[in-house]
Amino acid sequence: MESVNAFLAETKPSDDVKAILTETCFDCHSNHTTYPWYNKITPINYWLAEHVNDGKKHFNVSLWDNYSIKKKDHKFEELIEEVEEKEMPLPSYTYTHSDANLTDVQIQQVVDWGNKVRLGYALTPRPE
């Protein structure tokens, strides 16, 4: 199974940002979803699976090594925008995961990290 390690190694989040990613992002945006106990209840399990699959379709850090530099940069552009606009994490996620409600300080930490990662991609030579 693909890991989040390549993503973490390449993007080098601080310990604080890594904790935020683990608490708020990886359940829906990696191949390492931890389903809650109520996932055993139908139709909730179908609803959760749809959300997780949709999240991974848009951004899956477990597949990070498969993305081009251009795609990685674009994913970070989207990540920054979604977090700044408080569109992510989804309200339906934070409703049951109160620790995923990001404070303004946490949002700024993620945005600052994202911008630093994007700067690195901008400076990376790309094949013609």
Number of helices: 7
Percent helix range: 55-70%
- Mean pLDDT equals 88
Biggest pleated-sheet summary: none
Radius of gyration from CA coordinates: 15 Å
| SSE class | mainly alpha
CA distance, first residue to last residue: 32 Å
Briefly, what is this?
With 128 residues, the chain is an all-alpha fold. It has helices spanning 5-11, 15-24, 26-29, 44-58, 69-84, 91-96, 104-122. It has one domain (5-122).
Folded structure, characterized:
The chain is mostly helical and 128 residues long. It has one domain. The protein has seven helices and no strands. Helix 5 (69-84) runs antiparallel to helix 7. The radius of gyration is 15 Å and the shape is globular. The relative contact order is 0.16. The mean pLDDT is 88.
Which short descriptors sum up this protein?
single chain, 128 residues, mainly alpha, 7 helices, globular
Strand and helix layout:
Elements: H1 5-11, H2 15-24, H3 26-29, H4 44-58, H5 69-84, H6 91-96, H7 104-122
Helix pairs in contact: 5-7
